[in-house]
Amino acid sequence: MLVITGECFCGALRYEISAPLSRAQACHCSRCRKAFSGASSAFAELSSPESFRWVAGEAQLRQYTSQAGWGIGFCSTCGSTLCGLYQGRVMGVTLGTVNGNPGIEIGEHIFVASKAPWDHIGGSAPQFAEWPPWHNGTPGDAL
Q1: What is the mean pLDDT of the chain?
Q2: Domain map (residue ranges) of the chain
Q3: What is the pLDDT of residues 21-47, one digit of tens each?
Q4: Greater confidence, 70 or 139?
Q5: Rounded to the nearest 5°, which phi and psi values hold at 96?
Q6: Which fold, 4-22+42-107?
Q7: For the chain, what is the largest distance between any 2 Cα atoms, rounded to a whole number of angstroms?
Q8: Which UniProt keywords apply (predicted)?
């Protein structure tokens, strides 16, 4: 059985995922740059939200909810952003917190029209000015 593990920078928060990740994206919007302190956020959705579980430190998890039930989960000790939440439920993880190979690569860059002027996007993944045309606004589509 496939098990993906991940953790925050200080190791206080650790998780396991027992199903493959899906739909990996890099979001270059100004909100993600601030939330993730980088050029973009790199995240992937859970193919099955039930496959996610915290294995250590869940009491360290803090949540910032920004709009209509959407939020991010981060470690109260080191500040690492670990997951995207919808109405308190983990819907995706930030790829930088995954230990080892997550079994997925960035499949699309979104909100590139608002990327930082110093950001250079490499690779061959498609780029979209905002949401891709197939975006439908369902949980898991954004962190």
Answers
A1: 89
A2: 4-22+42-107
A3: 999 999 999 888 888 888 889 999 999
A4: 70
A5: -65, -15
A6: 2.170.150
A7: 43
A8: Lyase, Metal-binding, Zinc
